[in-house]
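Batch job 17 of 40 flagged for manual review because the log was empty.
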Amino acid sequence: MPEDLGHMEAPACSSAETMEEAARRAGQGSLLDRYKADYPVGPHDKPQSMCPAFGSLRTGLRMRRVATVLSGSACCVYGLTFVSHFYGARRSVGYVPFDSETLVTGKLFEDIREAVHKLADPAKYDAIVVTNLCVPTASGVPLRLLPDEIDGVRIVGIDVPGFGIPTHAEAKDVLASAMLSYARREVAAGPVPAPASGVEARPTVTLLGEMFPADPIGIGGMLAPLGLAAGPVVPCREWRELYSALDCGAVAAIHPFYTASIREFEAAGRPILPSAPVGVDGTNAWLEAVGDAFGLPQGKVEAAQNAVLPAMRGAFDAARIDGTITVSGYEGSELLVARLLIESGAKVPYVGTACAKTPWSAPDVEWLAAHDCEVRFRASLEDDLAVVEGLRPDLAIGTTPVVQKAKELGVPSLYFTNLISARPLMGIAGAGSLQQVVSAAMGNRDRMGRMRAFFDGVGHGDTAGIWEGDPNLRPDFRETNAKKMGKRERAKNAEAMI
């Protein structure tokens, strides 16, 4: 048994603090410190988000010839696979079960290694991604001791604990950066195979962050007058695209929270471009940054700007939005959407994102602040709900609970992930893409008011529904529970001060 396996513990699913303490005792301190640096939290402990491993799982499942294996509690694996298939996964997810004995003795690691060896078929796979969830990470299951490759199949081991990664969006970065790191080592070792789609003859700009499928095409059209092309989108869809992504002239941080991936590109000597070609101002500044990164003549950059900006202005003029809109979400593109809405004519006083502030979001923050929009990074659900309740906007764009709250208030709302992310945002196509759905939703205010009046008097929260008598509220139970929670919190604070 490797020496590393002798220090493992077996914490049950518990609080984040308990899990982190166990992980550090099991030798995972450097990993957690790196995550804290890459994905800082605050002002509160953590944004409310689904299990972060969903992000890395979904990223791996979208890649061709890549198998995915999870190591974690059965309930976690069930939930993750269910949600992944709900979102369109079309392949199975591997699972290595465990119990307290296999976890403590190190047998779990041996089981993982055996499973990977059985699965590694070069005729089927280019890579296998093995993911530790909370309990294996907290117990120190050392995926780093897995072989780098088996019969030509790459083995990529990552830890994605809920107590170390704040959001599922940032978990995408964990896997993307691990793959980029592996591919970078392969490139340094010698020639690598070309992607199935071939090699682009023009210099390319790699696009960092998941986006609507039409956006890379639109960005490519904007780059063409500069003699450039849009490179692969990271996270990639096949392993060989990682080589092309690294072999670029610059990287566009469309989603600015991919901190670890940006570190890999910087290690490869690639400049990073912040923000994105969204709206007239954003596209103008972004093309200017591209020209600077590639050392292009100013006249050539101006020609590329003149080729797209007048048409974008026309698209905005033809698709105006009149109203106040709040924006919140966890995809990482919230600031870009807010910019697009403002240039469409809307007033956007608030945009909240579950992701962290990074240097590559700075241009968007500055532009939004100049247009009277408050930007809140690591926004909590309470932040978003308070804004909707306080402002009562003409439209609230947000996550499921934000949309639910808005409907209770009679405020029209749209679910960010399904109805906003599923539209182009970049270039000319993005300029008029939101007007129809946004204006249609804002037109529902009267209908929302009628629905609210219809359901008035049926109760709220634990008193909702039709009652034959008065609801049994038991305020004494609430008071007792509140005292217990207060006592627990005071004990926790006292312990922290020792």
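Reviewer: the log was empty due to a logging misconfiguration, but the result itself is present. The chain has 22 helices and 14 strands. Unflagging and moving on to job 18.
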